[in-house]
Structures are given as C-alpha cells and as structure tokens.
Amino acid sequence: MNMPDITDHFNGIIQVKITMSFPLRWVNSYLLQGPEGLTIVDPGPRTPGNEEEWNKAFAELGIGPSDIRQIVLTHHHPDHLGCSGWLQEQSGSRVWMSERSYREAQLMWGQGSAMNRDLPALFRGHGMPEEWAGQLEAHLNGFISQVTPLPEVAFINAEQPFAMGGRRWLPVETAGHAPGHLSFYHPESGDILCGDAVLPQISPNVSLMPGSDPEPLQSFLQGLLKLKNLEVGTAYPGHRNPFQHFGERLEALLLHHEERLAKIERLLADAPATGFELCVSLFGTKLGIHQMRFAMCETLAHTRELERRGRIGSGAGGDGVIRFSLTTS
Fold this sequence. Notes:
Elements (H helix, E strand, L loop, with lengths): L4 E4 L4 E7 L6 E9 L2 E5 L6 H14 L6 E5 L5 H4 L2 H8 L2 E4 L1 H11 L5 H11 L4 H4 L2 H6 L11 E3 L6 E3 L2 E8 L6 E6 L4 E5 L20 H12 L6 E4 L8 H25 L2 E2 H9 L5 H20 L3 E5 L5 E5 L3
Parallel strand pairs: 4-5, 5-6, 6-7, 11-12
Antiparallel strand pairs: 1-2, 2-3, 3-4, 8-9, 9-10, 10-11, 13-15, 14-15
Helix pairs in contact: 8-9, 9-11, 10-11
C-alpha cells in the first residue's frame, strides 16, 4: 500500500485522504490539534486497507490512537462514520455527532433496521425491475462491515460553539444529503469544515429513503440558503480538495436542482412515467448497483419536490406501480 496522502494546511488543519473506491477515490479526514487534544473529523469507512492507512498516517505524523481525544462526524454515511467505532475502541475517545444523524445511523444499521427490505420495496413500487431490485439487499448488507462497531456517541448542540484545534466552531445543521448533517464554521478565519453539504465539483447526492426525511430536496435547498448567510474564505469538504469559491458552488447547486426539476417536467410532458423510467432517462443504465441506488433515490427526491410544488401528481396503476404525470392547470 502507498503511504497515505497527508497535507498540512498550516492553519491547524491537517488533511488525510482515506481511500475509497471509484468514482469518489477518497474521503477527507481532518486532524485538528488544540488544548482540548487531538480531534479527528470523519475518519472514513472501515476496511482492512483503511486501518493500515490510518496506522501509517499516525506513524508519519508521530501520533497514535492514544492521542485522540475526540472524533467528530459531519454525518452518518459509512464513508464518514465508518472507522469511528474502531478508533474509539483503540483510543477511548468520545465520538460526537448530531442527534438526528445518530437516528439516521440507527435507521440504516441499528438493531432492528429493515432498510435492506424497505428500500427494495420502495423501488419496486416505483417500477424498478427485479434485475436491479434483487441486488439491493446484498448491496446494503455489504456496508455493515464498514461501520462495525458503531460508536458510542455524544450529541453536538448546534446552538453552542464546539471546540476543535484551539478554535471555537459554530455547528451549522443542514439536511437533504443527510438529515442532521453538521458543518463547522469559524467566523474569524472564514474556514468551514463542510462535509458533504457542499462539494467543489460533485453535486452531493440527495436521496429519498424510507423512514427518513420525507422532503429531502426541499431540505437540501433550504440548507444551501442557510449556508449562503456565511462569509466563507476556505471550505474543507468531505471529497475532493479545499476550495475558495464556496458562494459560487452554492449558486451552481441551487441552479442544478432547478434544472433537474424542469427536465423531469419535460419528460413527463410526453407521457406519464414511473420513477424508474425517469431515473433511466436522467442517468442511464450503465451503472453499478451502488450508483443506481443513488440515482433512483435522487430521482424520487426530485419527484417528491415536484409533487410538493403541485407540478406533478402520482397514482398506482392496475399493476400496483406508481406513475407520475403533470398536473393540469
């Protein structure tokens, strides 16, 4: 294995790239050292390779798990939460996240979770054929090893500053990509640790998931407007590299989703369609099951928003499959 990619930004933030599969390639973990001790933000998914990557990063930085005082999670997705329980076992450190994000982790992987059945049922109801839906249960179960063990957590109060790296950061809670997602903003410097709320080149996935936020795209757009109120100098995202064009990215993401909503309306102007038919029109079928899951969840997030705005309606046909159509003015 290659040595881990480590960048010291010489402002108290050290970026460690933890390997992921294509197309993301890596997730950014950030190390902040201060009077409160060493903080790790988003330690990445747990895999044998990533455990070794962390051990090599610790060796290169001259630290070890015993130096960790707290682990902070921007949100519950495996590529951010995954290694937190493993590092907690070694360090005895506290793991912090939002209470809503913790509930989402339990919904996905907690005892009694039914997501590996509920999500395929949702997709089948929206027209996904069995050749795709039949892959989902095994696919979802494949993430369990990446988040095991789940950490013991403490909850961050988004109304109070949070100390990391000798600075007091303001937690900013948004949703859409992940309910309860926390970014951390430092007004004095303009730095923001923004997780996956805003990414420099990628549009963060917005997913409609069973039992989760019923209006995820509306939540995401509201979150972007909330973040527009901040004067950001440098953004430290969960994927790709730190960037300065934070305000431009917010505007581009807002526009992107309005264009996606308009495209779905144009597709439905021809004829009613199922969620899966819309998904294929938007994203194609040359996807693996992982990307197809994201594509289908995102399509349904957009159809839900169009229904909320009164632009389209839906109903089940004789086959029990839901189809969408434009509303009549």
